[in-house]
Amino acid sequence: xxxxxxxxxxxxxxxxxxxxxxxxxxxxxxxxxxxxxxxxxxxxxxxxxxxxxxxxxxxxxxxxxxxxxxxxxxxxxxxxxxxxxxxxxxxxxxxxxxxxxxxxxxxxxxxxxxxxxxxxxxxxxxxxxxxxxxxxx
Length: 137
Ligand code: TYD
Fold this sequence. Notes:
This protein has 137 residues and is mostly beta strands. The protein has one helix and twelve strands, in the order E-E-E-E-E-E-E-E-E-E-E-E-H. The chain has one helix at residues 126-132, and strands at residues 7-10, 13-14, 21-22, 36-40, 49-54, 59-65, 68-73, 78-83, 88-92, 97-101, 108-113, 122-123. A five-stranded antiparallel β-sheet has the order 1-9-6-11-4, with no helix packed on it. Strands 8-7-10-5-12 form a five-stranded antiparallel β-sheet. A two-stranded antiparallel ribbon has the order 2-3. Bound molecules: thymidine-5'-diphosphate. Thymidine-5'-diphosphate binds at residues 36, 38, 40, 49-50, 117.
């Protein structure tokens, strides 16, 4: 799937003087059903996360609190997204390399995923990823 499929999705936001509320329904607000959620927190300043691609997994990343950057690549082109709004998510399609950096202090990254955790779904080696994308032999 091409890098252009990855995009910021605006999520529903119910504005209320008592506090705002956003929600996500699988297959409705995002283009996949949700099988798993996980979250990153207590990320030390200067840390990088990610550094891999997934074969079949669809994901949505949200800066629930604070901010961070996500650099996406298809092996040829890169795109940097700055996430800092809890009512927006970055949709990442399969076969996209990603690195997360520039975490603000106290930031929390919520991730919705289309499948359960499976280490066999990862490309953790960039050369092997490029071979799988037919960019390298
Ligand atoms: P990883 O996906 O490499 O983290 P990130 O992309 O945020 O840097 O996962 C880090 C470790 O956590 C790795 O040993 C696998 C494990 N893990 C699970 O057991 N279940 C999960 O749902 C996730 C996302 C990771």
